[in-house]
Amino acid sequence: MKLNRRIFLGGTALVLTTAAAARAMQTNGVRVKLPERRRQVAGIAGQIEIVDDRFGVPHIRATTKADAFFGQGYTVARDRLFQLDLGHRRAMGRLAEAFGPAFVANDHAERLFHYRGDLDAELAKVPAEVLACARGYVAGVNARIDEVIADPDLLPAEYRILGARPMKWDVRDLVLQRGASIGNIDDEIRRARLAALGMLELDTLVAPLRPAWRLRVPDGLDVASISERDLGVLVTAEGALPFGATPSPVRDPDAPSTGPDNAGSNAWTVGPGRSATGRPILANDPHLGIGGFAPRHVAHLTAPGLDVIGGGSPGLPGIMQGHTDRFAFGRTNSHNDQNDLFILELDPADPERYRHAGGWKRFATVEETIAVKGAPAQTIRMRYSVHGPVLRHDAAARRATAMSSVTMMPGAMGGFAMIAINLARDWEDLKQAFRLHPSPTNFHYADIDGNHGWQVIGMAPLRKGGHDGLLPAPGDGRYDWTGRIGAEALPREYNPARGWFASANQDNIPPDYPMRERPLAFSFREPYRYERIVEVLEAQPRHGIADSAALQQDVLSTPARQLVALIPAKVSDAATPTAAMLRGWDRQLGAGSAAAALFRILWADLGTRILDTVVPPAARELVPSIAAGELIRVMRDADPRLGANPAAVRDRLFDQALASAWAEAVKLMGPDPATWRWGKLHQVRIAHPLARIPAIAAAFPPIEGGESGGDNYTVNARWVPSRGYRTSGGASYLQVIDVGNWDDSLYLNLPGQSADPASPHYRDHYSPWITGQMQKLPFSRNAVEKAAQARTTLMPRNKEPAE
Fold first, then answer.
1. What integer is the mean pLDDT of 275-297?
2. Against a cut of 0.85, is the pTM above it?
3. Is the Cβ–Cβ distance between 450 and 339 less than 8 Å?
4. What is the DSSP annotation of 731-756?
5. How far apart are CA 229 and CA 420, in angstroms?
6. Is the dihedral of CA 641, 643, 644, 649 positive or negative?
7. Could you tell me what percent of the chain has a pLDDT over 70?
8. Cβ pair 259, 698 in contact under 8 A
9. Which residue ranges make up each domain of the chain?
């Protein structure tokens, strides 16, 4: 079977009118007939029309809202089935049944974080209309799975290579799966280990708290006993899946494992009084992983009472960033602390009991059987304390660890939240929809009536005993969670007087928020992106659509401004070339800039030298990196930890780093500085996450060759990983929305809609994304028809398809 037997747009099994049917276009003013496909499917109430535009975006027209979501599930499975299926299998803890014994540990970890309450009671909390739409999405995914199972030639190549088949969905899966994630528990463990060394103050170097806060070890916590082993099964859950000869980095692309300076997004709204259009503008560019599966799939859902378009996350019903016919919406991470690690003392007479509330309490236990391909099934036993899943149980040490997570609470079902948001008609409706949204988010809003607003949404725990969640705590009952708060108690702003609002993961907790009573978050990101956004917006009395698009591509580096200003007036001969090039630089991290490449090399080198100097060897592994603001502060203030003569040590380190950076640049880019470019190091390569398997690497050639500007701290966020300089994440999906004049809205979606290399939409956004050439996102019926390239009609199975 040849890969090219799969037909246009993911090889859908629909019947073509003629093999030679042409794409929709205007030829000498004459409309050419579109390729038309018709298919009978189960699970829909009426006919669904799917119009694919020139970039493969499906514009779904249905007679009911549930059928519109059916169309979304169907088309994302059409375009991204293996990505969708792999993520779903992992979340359901059913990898081993498809791929063998090596995946049992992953399945165990995921199942530990399945919801253990009454699934039907949870479903009963979901508004009926939202639940109907969720059922429609699941039915749409299953309809596409039925098609490819009925005709194995249509299966994506991964299934033939791996000898697997896609797994059917159930709407209860959206309740059951809650996500096995370390969250910020590793930060808690790092702080405890530093406290055990008497060096807790060093934590500010790697993760300064925002807002400022004094770290305190909870009473009764034995910090000397804490280590990474306390993460238990979560180490497996966060790790790579064991495909191929060596592990491959496969994980949910919407929740990449990133350093503290990486994860985030930008969003801003501009009100009509500051807008060049006289209408609100909303811009958003979620920062997600770059290098594997595309994190967003764009779709347009239309039905009576529903008209929404934008980027969705494969596997999650609804649109995450985009607009309806009445309002635009975007999101950035608000970093609410939603996880705590508890240390439990086990009963020496019975290790199935733990000390709690002055007595001994027995663990709740659940046993499940994991089916294993090619091997006997395995039975696993999972323990739960009042806090949540037990990560590690060590009877010999009389010790266990358990994790409290907002996601494990009743009602914390993120799988329904975007549907509710998409069905909302205005700001008041959204307030009700936010109740279904557990994940921490800055939600941005702008509507056709000229309003714009911001609301922190997501759930946050209420803690006992004054616990702030920054270190582990004894699980004896003194620090337990007592409940949670939601969006109704979180910060918001509506129609701000300044005429704009922006979030870039900076600390935006208002001064009057009661942090002592309800600690919310301390892991906000460096403020550099936000400060640059403010600088640009404040300088533009009238901000336009093109201005927002340009700001999303902005690569001016505030850390570069600050560090270059600190270069000593006199440097050694070896350091002079670097000092001279950087002093003459415009501080723009453009892909073609030699100085930008040199700066990034210097930054990495200087950071390592500072940490090796100020961090004692016993703590060095616990402080693997230095926050950008701390690096600048140490150099600017000549931190006393540099030594007896800190200014002299600082200047010596700076000189050494300047000299070393030039030598490293020569090594990486050659001896001629005229040929150096930041993009030569900061390349954008997208490969299949399972490309370590030779057959998959051959079937899915990498998308590469593009050079990127920017870094972790520029508005155009293009992350630099901890090792090397490739682009590892950033704004893979971008949107600038002209509120009310929807057809002039712009977007980019790296690398394209389809995961099939045979599709023209496998990489058609790669080059525009590299160059920042935003594309129109048609919304009105007329604009969609002009951009149409193919048409599909889904018919209820009991009706005969038209000839």
1. 96
2. yes
3. no
4. E-EEEEEETT-GGG-EEEESS-S-S-
5. 40
6. negative
7. 93
8. no
9. 3-179, 185-251+338-408, 264-337+410-459+482-552, 558-681
Look-up of token digits 């918001």: 492
CATH topology for the 264-337+410-459+482-552 domain: Glutamine Phosphoribosylpyrophosphate, subunit 1, domain 1 (3.60.20)
Label residue 257 by pLDDT band (50, 70, 90).
Answer: very low
Token pair in block for residue 563: 């560090």
> Is the bond into 272 cis (omega within 30 degrees of 0)?
no
Residues 429-457 pLDDT 10s = 999 999 999 999 999 999 999 999 999 99
Helix (H) or strand (E) segment spanning residue 454:
strand 452-457
Cβ contacts of residue 225 below 8 Å, gap of 6+? 343, 399
Q: Which residue has the tokens 């799917």?
A: 50
Q: 342: which strand partners?
A: 402, 473
Which of the following CATH numbers is that of domain 185-251+338-408: 2.30.120.10, 3.30.2350.10, 1.10.540.10, 2.60.40.10?
2.30.120.10
Q: Can you read off the two tokens belonging to residue 568?
A: 């000593």
User: CA-CA distance, 165 to 410, in Å (whole number)?
Assistant: 32
Burial category of 59 from C-beta neighbours within 10 Å (exposed 0-12, middle 13-18, buried 19 and up): buried
- Distance between CA atoms of residues 252 and 427, nearest Å: 30
Per DSSP, which regions of 3-82 are E strands?
A: 15-16, 26-27, 30-31, 36-41, 48-53, 58-61
Is residue 597 within 8 A of residue 709, CB to CB? The reply is no
Residue 117 identity = G
Residue-wise pLDDT for 486-501, tens only, equals: 999 999 999 999 999 9
Burial status of residue 444 (CB atoms within 10 A of its CB: 0-12, 13-18, 19 or more): buried
Residue 224's SS3 state is: helix
Task: Give me the amino acid identity at 740.
Answer: G
- Residue 58: cis peptide before it, omega within 30 degrees of 0: no
Question: Which pLDDT does position 87 carry in this prediction?
Answer: 96
Look up residue 552 and give its two tokens.
């999303």
- For the cut 50, the answer to whether the pLDDT of residue 38 exceeds it is yes
Contact indicator for 747, 734 with CB cutoff of 8 Å: yes
Residue 52's beta-bridge partner residues?
A: 58, 790
Which tokens in the block code for residue 717?
């966020």
pLDDT at 239: 74
Beta-bridge mates of residue 309: 300, 323
- Secondary structure class of 660 (helix, strand, coil): helix
User: Using CB atoms within 10 A of its CB, is residue 406 exposed (0-12), middle (13-18) or buried (19+)?
Assistant: buried
234 within 8 A of 105, measured Cβ to Cβ: no
Residue 242's nearest CA partner among 232, 252, 250 is 250
558-681: which CATH topology?
Answer: 1.10.1400
- List, in order, residues 6 or more apart from 404 with CB less than 8 Å away: 339, 340, 342, 387, 388, 461, 480, 481
3-state secondary structure (DSSP) of residue 349: coil
| Residue-level pLDDT at 255 | 33
Q: What is the pLDDT of residue 244?
A: 72
Q: Which helix (H) or strand (E) holds 485?
A: strand 481-485
**Is the distance from CB of 215 to CB of 470 less than 8 angstroms?**
yes
Q: Structure tokens of 231? A: 């993460």
pLDDT confidence tier of residue 141, bands split at 50, 70 and 90? very high
Kindly list the distances between the CA atom of residue 694 and the CA atoms of 84, 98, 102, 283, in Å, as whole numbers in the listed order: 22, 19, 19, 40
The DSSP symbol for 490 reads S
Give the pLDDT confidence of 603-637 residue by residue, as tens digits: 999 999 999 999 999 999 999 999 999 999 999 99
Please report how many Cα atoms fall inside a 13 Å half-sphere around the Cα of residue 616, on the Cβ side. 9
Tell me what the mean pLDDT of segment 717-744 comes to.
94
Q: CATH number for the 3-179 domain, one of 1.10.260.40, 1.10.580.10, 3.40.720.10, 1.10.439.10?
A: 1.10.439.10
The number of C-alpha atoms within 13 Å of 155 and in the hemisphere containing its C-beta is: 18
Quick one: tokens of 147? 């098609």
Residues 6+ apart with CB under 8 A from 405: 113, 178, 181, 183, 338, 339, 388, 389
